Amino acid sequence: MSNEIIRVSNVSKKYKMYKHPTDRLKEALSFRNKSYHRDFRALDNINFSISRGENVGIIGKNGSGKSTLLKIITGIVQPSTGNVQVYGRVSAILELGAGFNPEYSGIENIYTYGMIMGITKREMQTKIDEIIEFADLGSFINQPVKTYSSGMYARLAFSVAINIDPDLLIVDEALSVGDMGFQHKCMNKMKELIDRGVTVIFVSHDTFAVKSLCSRCIYLEHGNIKADGSAIEVTDIYLMDTRKKIYTVESKEITSMNKLALHNLETGEISGTMEADIIKQEEEAKEDDTNKYEQLRYGTGDVRIKKVSMINEQGKVADHFEFGEMMSIEIDLQAYKQIDNLNCCIRIRDKNGIDVTGTTTIEENITFPTINEREKIKVLFKAPNLLKHDMTFSLGATINDTKNIADQTILDHVDLAYTFKSVYNPKRPVWYMYYQEYDIKYDISK
């Protein structure tokens, strides 16, 4: 038996676009077969496969073809060319309340959905209590769904979809309308399904949610697959593309740094300062690797990050820090233009690319004087290591010209500037991702 659950082969979808509503009728009645439309390709020769048990995110701007692709996978829409093969029971939440009859009650719609999915009433009766409990709609479960709010629709739709034992679960932005508690509940349930081996396709604009839930990500742009790979790498490419100001950097300056840092994140290996490694790898770097790692850096280039390193309590460059040990992050900058409102930002991510902590010089009430062209700046961040032990983390840096929160220009942004590991301290083990100090008081009375 093949391990594939989905195979998408040469799938394209073409729609006819009319300038005026009457043009459709004119075209239909034309004796000379005159065309009044232009073709719009929502999808253009898409190819990929998904294995059983994979958890795949699909991202892309509005109009990139995400929803069209999912509708083709679920059989709602037929492709213009190509075909899709799906092996197993598919449960999909594509549009809020899709498949629900507004005149039926919540209970009636649950059974109706089961019939559509080919599930017998007897089988649905074994699942009904779990569905009702998860939806948590109270007495509204017996009311017509036309009386439901959008959040209630989401609760019912998601509860039914995940509790019918699907082989493949497809979720398309449906959680965005739910309250925070319900969203958290749904994410935990999807992670539970993934642990049980259910294949999940998750479509969202929330890159943090995609990285948290998915190991693989497909990035659609203008109906084409722009990137398909690890969720961390692909979402970083997507975030970069959402920035307006992008510049190309020399491969010798950043390619090897990002290549080594990405390797460290993927393998868990650690390499302290990267200067020696950069020099060594600059001669080994291949041209075809350049674009892949340049995509992890962007900005105007008016100020450039020249070096990032981390220093331990002994004043030495280090890549391992015990809990409580003082860490110093040194960032060397070079200005190529006068900057009046310099802001330096750092962020620390875990191996899944999820932001754990960080800060900015503005948030720390640090005000730089005007930075003149050709000046060099060294910025030092110093703090104790409060991160969970035996975990690898990456350090990223961003340099802004920031007049205020709403008016800022990215001068330089490097996602993977350095990697380090938080190591076990027998005097103070840490069981949480990040330790927060608390002022604890107690009172005893009889």
Q: Give, in order, the helices and strands.
A: EHEEHEEHHHEHEHEEHHHHEEEEEEEEE
Report how far the terminal alpha carbons are from each other: 69 Å
What general outline do the C-alpha atoms trace? globular
Q: Give the beta-strand count.
A: 18
Mean pLDDT: 81
Global Rg: 26 Å
CATH class value of the largest domain? Alpha Beta
CATH superfamily of the largest domain: P-loop containing nucleotide triphosphate hydrolases
Report the helical percentage. 25-40%
Structural category is alpha/beta
Binned strand content: 25-35%
Low-confidence stretches at least 5 residues in length (pLDDT < 50)?
A: 244-255, 268-295
The appropriate CATH architecture of the largest domain is 3-Layer(aba) Sandwich
Strand order, biggest sheet? 5-6-7-3-8-9
CATH topology of the largest domain: Rossmann fold
